[in-house]
Amino acid sequence: MVRTRFGGQQNELTNGTRARDQRKVTGIGSMDISSFVLNLNLNSTTNRGMADILQFAGPNPRVDELIANTIDINRSDLGLRRALRGEMVVALTSIGAAAYANVENMDELKTALAKEDKKLKNPKAQKSAVERWQENLVCAQQAAIIHKYREIIKAAGMIYPYQIPDMAKACENAGDPLDPVYTFANMGLDTLRGLSSKDARARAEGELVTSAARLLGYRAKNGAFPEKLADAFKEIPCDTFEGEAYGYRREGEGFVIYSIGETGKFDGGKLGEDSTGKEALFRYAPKTQ
């Protein structure tokens, strides 16, 4: 019996050139959250395909090495913190255009300014005052964005268990949601809150498939799977959800390697057990088992 929890879609093995060309075509060269999420989805699709190929190929040194190299080549270098910096730049550059394009209430603003200052009865003075008001608003909005994203980027650099509470706190509204100063700083915070777990899971999936390929290669060379990961790896791969080694155990003639996941309690499950679809693991069980 062969099973994979990464899905059932098979992907053609891609070389580095094709992967880079594909990123150019899909516009993934940009550095923002949209590109980051798209990269996660592409990497997940690649991982599923590679996992299925590994399941069918089994202990085949040539295939195992090719799978590991393919995942490394296709892995995006656009990390969460880099994407957040790019998103901050996008927000900062969008403010000016949005502020000056929103002129629907300019007549009301001119009237309000004129009531406070009799000198602003003159149309030219009104225009100058409105322009100063807009400039001050833009500067205040940009300052709010920089402050907010600095908090979020700092939180995103923490190890997952510590990252979650810091990320949640950093993604709280910067101020009164009705205050125009914080309009841009508060946009998309709900989306940013969930990125930590998506990022950790996506990286875990890729690392588990790569590790599984190395373990199958070890089996082809030594005739049996290692008793522990240290027997097969010079540097033991670390779980993206905790910073410690991934869980691993032999199961008859096969094995399972897994991440503890968001809850920190997943233990790899049991052979033949249905998956909830939320776990990241690779289980290999020969057909004879």
Structural summary, described in words:
The protein has helices at residues 16-25, 33-57, 61-74, 80-101, 106-116, 123-156, 160-170, 189-193, 195-222, and strands at residues 247-251, 254-258, 281-284. It has a 3-stranded antiparallel β-sheet with strand order 1-2-3, with helices on one face. Helix 2 runs antiparallel to helix 3 (61-74) and helix 5 (106-116) crosses helix 6. The radius of gyration is 26 Å and the shape is elongated. The chain has 2 domains: 16-77 and 197-284, no CATH class; 80-194, no CATH class. Helix content is 55%, strand content 5%. By secondary structure, it is mainly alpha-helical. The protein is built from 9 helices and 3 strands, in the order αααααααααβββ. Residues 1-29 have low confidence and may be disordered.
